[in-house]
Amino acid sequence: MFRRERSIPLRGSAAALCNNLSVLQLPVHNLTHFGVVHGPSAQLVSAAPEGVPLAQRQLHAKERAGVSLPLITQVHWCVLPFRILLVLTSHRGIQMYESDGSVMVYWHALDSGDASPVQAVFARGIASSGHFICVGTWSGRVLVFDVPAKGPNIVLSEELAGHLTSVTDIASEHAQEQDPAGEKGKGSLCLSPQDCIADMVTADDSGLLCVWRSGPEFKLLTRIPGFGAPCTSVQLWQGIVAAGYGNGQLCLYEASTGTLHAQINAHARAICALDLAPMVGKLLSAAEDTFVHIWKLNRNLKNGCIEVEHCHGECVPDTQVCGARFCDPSGSSLAVTGYDLAEILRFSSV
Amino acid sequence: MSMRTLPLLFLNLGGEMLYILDQRLRAQNIPGDKARRVLHDIISTMFNKNFIEELFKPQELYSKKALRTIYDRLAHASIMRLNQASMDKLYDLMTMALKYQVLLCPRPKDVLLVTFNHLDAIKGFIRDNPALVHLVDETSQQLIEAYGGLSAGEFQLIRQTLLTFFQDLHIRVSIFLKDKVQNSNGRFVLPVSGPVPWETEVPGLIRMFDHKGKEVKRTEFRHGGNYIAALKEGSFELYGDRVLKLGTNMYSANRPVETHTSGASKNLASQSQQSIAPNPLAKEELNFLAKLMGGMEIRKPSGPEPGFRLNLFTTDEEEEQAALTRPEELPHEVVNIQATQDQQRNQELARIMGEFEVTDQPRWSASKGDDLLAMMDEL
């Protein structure tokens, strides 16, 4: 069972985008950062444990002189081995900031070179993988940025080809998720580069999923074809790909082989967000049908098969949910955003 | 955002405008031939070949201001006149109706069915004029060609673009409140029952498979809604059963409408958001409109057919009252679309920017709802 906690007010309502909530948990500092896209601006809010808002900041997409403000597509915190960066994607390009959004450290303008006039040009889909930040684009290309431990010397190191339609979301497994017992401590960063090799999955508008092994050069391991509906959100946990689709279906695949292991008729409208509580293998799915569902993922040790069970469903009345995240590693609290809603809704389990 | 959204926005808003004008013309007992003339003139302007051709070119959505200007112009394409207060109310009703329709579309692609519903009804208004019906049919054909082959992902982007346009509009509309599709806080009711969209399964089933793809387990879960399977898919052809009711005329003869909105909940902060930044591109938008609409005949209310004034309110006094309480940031006159007016436009934008204040977002609490209800009762 979940109960409503105190909401966090926003200056601007949430835009009708998928994956429109990013959460950075900082338990060491007793703080949680939230990031929500409003439209031409994105809002960052820091809150104390009871949801008391402490600080707010608004970020804008970089403009081009003489043109109206470009729209932001996504805002997301990337946890890297030695630093945390905030990444903002828009119809103009990719902006990277220090984690509190105070200083922009890098700007990459999108190349709309071979786009037809009818094609919208934008970046969308953000994830960190080791010391790389990967960002998807309208063309299907995934840009890989090499991020140094300090400073603004970020370099575009690779462009991954694998998708033919616009990228929707990217997920990777971080070192923290690979260390469920928390021996390295909650909220701590990797101690050495070798601890941080992570796998990655990218998704696109046609529903295609690409599974990658990260490294100095990323390697495409598997392709999982779509079935007509866009894959709007994707997560990766212990070699299991969880994919949410525009027709409300939630599927689980074996990452290394691409085999379908579970197919859930989870929602009556498009899924717009998935999130993981990696310590306990909990997955949340949120959709435009106003529901948020919590699932428990499990690997059957006898036959290695992936199993899933439904834990709980929560209805957010009259709200087209557009973002949802767990707020703690055990998955006992979550935050939700909805289109047109100027607040972040918070829930905790009882 | 999507570059394919403008035709859908324009045609659907235009359709809603015609529904409302048709109802008000009857409510105000405007003689049949005059009423038909008005609808005929507006429809022929709306479906002007050159205009439609420009409309279908890939482009970004117009700003709210620019789009509002088009409808000002369109509403005055005939012998009918509307005061500013009535024009405001007309535009509010149009936009809230389309917001409702887009939000409640089961699938993003269904916005196309909504558009066909509007076009089907428009053909009903002018069915005695085959040339005009043909013009509307040509536009339907263009829709089929432009949108028929788009993927679900592209339609989702279109839907998101439309919702961005309607973001933060919470004007309460009597007919929606009465039908309980809108709450007193201005938000639409999102039902969790009824048929699921075409190509979506009823939530509840979990199927699990082994390494070889064989189904090994099947369980059910309680999803909380009350859904049934989709009945049938609407037709995307020139003629056919659209199945979806969104976009059909809710102001039909046996539903006399109190087109009664309360303007109190206009969200100043976000409405101004789009217009405050001095936008040199707005100059381009309006120049473009001038080029197109300048080529169209505007009926002057003179000669053998005198013009008449249509009132969107129930009485003239109400209209006057509404004019007095109009929020400051809306333009006081229809913007005249001429090249020389561009400087004036930038000055106007600068003036609006000077008046812009950040207001806090209203908190949705029980007492707030009561205040709004009380205000409604007083209107």
TrEMBL record, chain A:
Residues 1-350 form the WD repeat-containing protein 54 beta-propeller domain. The keyword Metal-binding does not apply. Keywords: WD repeat. WD repeats lie at residues 264-298. This is WD repeat-containing protein 54 isoform X2. It comes from Phyllostomus discolor.
Automatic annotation (TrEMBL), chain B:
The gene is OSCP1. Residues 257-280 are annotated as: Disordered. The lineage of its organism: Eukaryota, Metazoa, Chordata, Craniata, Vertebrata. One of its GO terms (cellular component) is plasma membrane. Residues 259-277 have a biased composition (Polar residues). It comes from the Eukaryota. InterPro entries: OSCP1. Transmembrane segments: none annotated. This is Organic solute carrier partner 1. It holds the Pfam family Oscp1.
